[in-house]
Structures are given as structure tokens and as C-alpha cells.
Specification:
This protein is α/β, with parallel strands linked by helices and about 230 residues long. The protein is built from five helices and eleven strands. Strand 10 and strand 11 form a beta hairpin.
């Protein structure tokens, strides 16, 4: 799917390379792949002149040391990372205090890597039943009201907002995670954004973000921006 819209993608992201003169760029590796997604996703980043974005489909970003050239990893992929070299590079990145934002279906990443979902993201969508846990489920086009679960820079300025999005249910979430955003939807999990338990860097997981209605939602865009800026330590 990447090849079919690369020209459009470049047009969307080109303005982001023009950085404000008085602000250093937040260098972002945006990792896609493993799951089809709408071109509207890239418009989420429009207008952020302090973002310098490199789109690098999975697993390309993890083939080399990312610590010097990247401030924040933004994951919008759905894939497992099985190679030892790639896993080492990701561990080194997070050990170095670099930030990460996990968006929507990327919470399904690395199904067979307990360190990832137990220690880093603090959440896991189960593709199949496991022990006494049933498989997770999803439902498209669910209207909901989202609200902050306390004060935090990631949810600053959002207030309560309406959004139509895909929801997940019957996920596992670590009790060591900190919920940032909740939604009133009986079809899915109440928590829709949280901070992972990883203490060496800043990790934000945002379950929202499936399609055009979410991507064009001004509050969702603000949520993603806030998460990236906070993950970068700004």
C-alpha cells in the first residue's frame, strides 16, 4: 500500500520539514507497515513545524542504531519484531531515555515478546485466547465521549470531546500503567490512552486513531501532538 500513495505522502509531509527558526526540531521516526491504513493518517501531523518526520516502514527503522538521529519513535505498524539485532536497537533506544508513542493497532505489536508489553507499553491486544484470557475484540465506527483521567501534559487543553473510532475490548493492561484518557463506550475498554510502565524513558500508548473520522478530529490531533512533545521531554 505504501507505494500507491508515496507521492501524496511526500506532499503531505513536505511542509513539516520547514522548521520554525526559534524551535529545535523534534526528530521523529514514524514506523508503519503490517496493516493497511488510510492516507488521512498523515494529515494528523500537519501544521507541526517543529516536527521533522521520517516515515520508515517496519522493520527498516530498527536495522540501525536510532539513538543519535531520533528523539521519538511513533509506531503505527502491526508487526512482530523477532530479529535479535532489531530488538537490541529498540532496547538501546529506550534505555537511552528516548521517547515513544504507540498509536492504535501498534498495540498489537510483538505478541510474543513479554518484555515489550509487560515492561514497556503496559498493554496488549490478544490475537488469540491465552490461558484464562479470551482473545481481544474490535468494533468499527463507535461514537464515544473521551475525557482526561486527571491532569497531565499529554491531555492538556483537551477537555471532553466526541470522537468516532474503532474500539478494542478484552485487552490486557498492566496495573503499573497510568491511564490518561477514558471513554464512555460499553463496546470497548474504558482506558483509551495511558503511560507505559517503562521508567527509563517516556512511553505513551493511544488506542484511538483508526480512520478518517479520528484522523480529522482536532482533539485527536492535539492528543497525538501533546504525546509526541511530552515523549520528547519538551
Amino acid at each position: 500500500m505504501i507505494g500507491s500513495y508515496m507521492k501524496t505522502l511526500l506532499l503531505l509531509l513536505a511542509p513539516l520539514a520547514a522548521l520554525a527558526a526559534d524551535a529545535p526540531a523534534i526528530r521523529i521516526q514514524l514506523v508503519t507497515g503490517g496493516h493497511d491504513h488510510e492516507i488521512s493518517f498523515y494529515a494528523v501531523f500537519e501544521g507541526n513545524r517543529d516536527f521533522q518526520i521520517n516515515v520508515n516502514p517496519h522493520p527498516g527503522a530498527f536495522h540501525s542504531d536510532m539513538r543519535k538521529g531520533t528523539d521519538v519513535l511513533v509506531l503505527y505498524d502491526m508487526a512482530d519484531m523477532d530479529g535479535e539485532t532489531e530488538r537490541r536497537h529498540l532496547r538501546e533506544f529506550l534505555d537511552a531515555g528516548k521517547g515513544m508513542v504507540v498509536l492504535h493497532h501498534a498495540v498489537i505489536d510483538n505478541q510474543h515478546w513479554p518484555w515489550w508489553y509487560e515492561e514497556v507499553t503496559g498493554g496488549r491486544y490478544l490475537l488469540a485466547p491465552e490461558g484464562d484470557r479470551r482473545a481481544s475484540t474490535y468494533q468499527h465506527d463507535v461514537p464515544m465521549t473521551a475525557r482526561a483521567a486527571g491532569k497531565h501534559p499529554v491531555t492538556e487543553g483537551l477537555g471532553e470531546f466526541r470522537i468516532v473510532d474503532e474500539v478494542y475490548n478484552f485487552m490486557w493492561r498492566s496495573p503499573r500503567s497510568r491511564v490518561l484518557l477514558e471513554a464512555d463506550k460499553p463496546e470497548g475498554e474504558k482506558a483509551v490512552a495511558w503511560i507505559g510502565p517503562w521508567e527509563k524513558s517516556r512511553v505513551v500508548v493511544i488506542q484511538l486513531g483508526h480512520g478518517k473520522e479520528a484522523h480529522e478530529n482536532a482533539n485527536y490531533r492535539k492528543l497525538v501532538r501533546n504525546a509526541i512533545v511530552w515523549a520528547a521531554g519538551k
